[in-house]
Design brief:
Length: 536
């Protein structure tokens, strides 16, 4: 029997953009509560909610100034507790987002730490008289001068997000207690922000040279250096195991690590031999997927090699930081359906970003007026370079409000102005429209979610590739089921032994005796002869 966190389906909510219940233009926790029925009916089992804790919101919640209270624009403690309860009441699970690596520079701990060299929290952050050569993840030195101490502090991400000193036992204890706090309130797990940067080299040795300029989702080396001393330290792998023990005090708890690293490294966060580290780790190479059967065959093969059972991979095609998958697909509905079918039939936990289910796409916005702090660092550079490099600099573009219906502000908010503009395609692309259209992407997601829930083979079955398929067709078995996906616009016919068809993606796939004809971008799931459920 798989633990629940290895068979679940995850829906990521960016609460600022999901649903605004009080008309201030910013999404909030009551808004999320209002939409829980939508998510339950759609069929997701777990929601992950991006941070809503007290914060100056310079990085919209990923800069926490108090882990145990709620930012007023999102609600209050009662709302957070009600959200947990209401999620559970619907038979779903809820995962919070925990930022262990850094706090806001407005956190009282940091204000105290920076005030002098002798205060009780002087050693809670990383202070040095002289910076080494390390770059931050967003480019440029990650060392920043604080006059009060006459020293530099280290920030892995942005300057207002100073890194905590995890080698200080008091820090570690406090952050562990923070994790226990929300678990004791009933949350079912954590998404762990930039987990692999928590520990740095104790001696702060310079990072070595690399030819790599641009960091990629699967390897944050870049800006001409390898991040060997600033990330992925042995202590971080050990922390994954310690954190697993901690969460174990509360039963089966999901932990999903945000780690931008090569697959061999990802695996070490899940465990060396058995899955005794984080229960899941994101795999970000696929955020830059190419829409070809050969690409996905190679991807799934590599994933299976690194995360064989009892490890469980994660399939994620977009998130709050990277280009939306629908945009990457050239806003092509048929391709989006095939991609979703792969995501829900491969062996792994699917993780879907809000709006992905209706085909929300990027909204092009200028860097100069961005609310996201990153693009403001890069206004000097011509935009096309980043597009060409496939780097999402302005994350506002993928965080626009959820499109619920065709009314003002897409039904997201009654405010005059929403915090980010609503995508102008909302009159057409919205939940209400797609609920009515049987062939919509939304209804395809719904069918896939139901199919996955009702077919244990889709959760637990091992994965073996099918050979001898026509070009641009991907095929694999999941236990007693065979999945066939046509990534091509041309139809494909193939011979195969099977006893029945249990899922059709478009309805235009043709089942013949010992053969299947897949229409362009068609997909089927077949059952095998010895499958006891095949008669249905
Ligand atoms: C990764 C998060 O996904 C991103 O949105 C955030 O800005 C950084 N971590 C810093 O916490």
């Amino acid at each position: 029997m798989l633990p629940w966190y290895h068979k679940t389906t995850i829906y990521q909510i960016y609460p600022r953009s999901f649903m605004d219940s009080n008309g201030d233009g910013i999404g909030d926790l009551q808004g999320v509560i209002q939409k829980l029925d939508y998510l339950r009916d759609l069929g997701f089992e777990t929601i992950w909610v991006s941070p809503f804790f007290a914060s100056p919101q310079q990085d919209f919640g990923y800069d926490v100034s108090d882990y145990l209270s709620i930012a007023p624009e999102f609600g209050n403690m009662d709302d957070a507790l009600q959200l947990i309860e209401e999620t559970h009441r619907r038979g779903m699970r809820i995962v919070f987002d925990l930022v262990l690596d850094h706090t806001s520079d407005q956190h009282p701990w940091f204000l105290e730490s920076r005030s002098s060299r002798g205060n009780p929290k002087a050693d809670w952050y990383l202070w040095k008289d002289k910076p080494n050569n390390w770059h931050s993840m967003t480019g440029g030195s990650g060392w920043h001068y604080a006059e009060e101490r006459g020293q530099f502090y280290w920030a892995s991400f942005l300057p207002f997000q100073p890194d905590l000193n995890w080698r200080n036992p008091e820090v570690k204890q406090t952050m562990f207690d923070t994790a226990r706090f929300w678990l004791s309130k009933g949350v079912d797990g954590y998404r762990l922000d930039i987990f692999n940067t928590i520990y740095k080299d104790a001696g702060f040795r310079d990072n070595p040279f690399s030819w790599k300029l641009v960091p990629t989702p699967d390897d944050t080396s870049g800006y001409f250096q390898k991040t060997v001393h600033s990330q992925d330290q042995p202590e971080s792998f050990e922390l994954a195991r310690e954190f697993r023990k901690l969460t174990g005090e509360f039963g089966e708890v999901l932990t999903i690590g945000e780690v931008a690293a090569r697959r061999g490294v990802l695996r070490r966060y899940a465990g060396e031999v058995v899955n005794d580290g984080l229960t899941l780790v994101f795999d970000f190479e696929m955020l830059q997927f190419k829409f070809r059967a050969e690409y996905f065959r190679a991807l799934v093969e590599k994933i299976e090699a690194h995360f064989p059972p009892p490890f469980m991979p994660v399939y994620v095609f977009c998130n709050l930081d990277k280009r939306r998958s629908f945009h990457r697909l050239g806003n092509d509905l048929q391709k989006a359906k095939i991609l979703a079918m792969l995501q829900f039939t491969a062996r792994g936990v699917p993780c879907v970003y809000y709006g992905e289910e209706i085909g929300m796409t990027n909204l092009k916005l200028p860097f100069k007026t961005a609310l996201d702090p990153i693009p403001r660092k890069y206004t000097f550079a011509p935009r096309f370079i980043f597009d060409w490099l496939d780097v999402t600099v302005n994350r506002d573009e993928v965080r626009t409000p959820m499109q619920w219906d065709g009314t003002r502000n897409a039904g997201f908010s009654s405010a005059e102005k929403t915090w980010l503009p609503v995508h102008p395609n909302y009159a057409e692309v919205n939940v209400e429209n797609e609920t009515r259209d049987e062939d919509s992407l939304l209804n395809t997601f719904k069918r896939l979610l139901k199919f996955r829930r009702e077919n244990e083979a889709m959760q637990a079955g091992s994965l073996e590739f099918l050979g001898g398929l026509p070009p641009n067709v991907l095929g694999f078995t999941r236990g007693s089921r065979a999945v066939l996906l046509n990534f091509d616009e041309r139809e494909k016919e193939l011979q195969i032994e099977f006893s029945g068809c249990v899922f059709k993606l478009t309805g235009r796939e043709e089942i013949k005796e010992k053969a299947v004809r897949l229409n362009g971008f068609g997909g089927v799931v077949l059952s095998s002869k010895d499958d006891p459920f095949s008669a249905q």
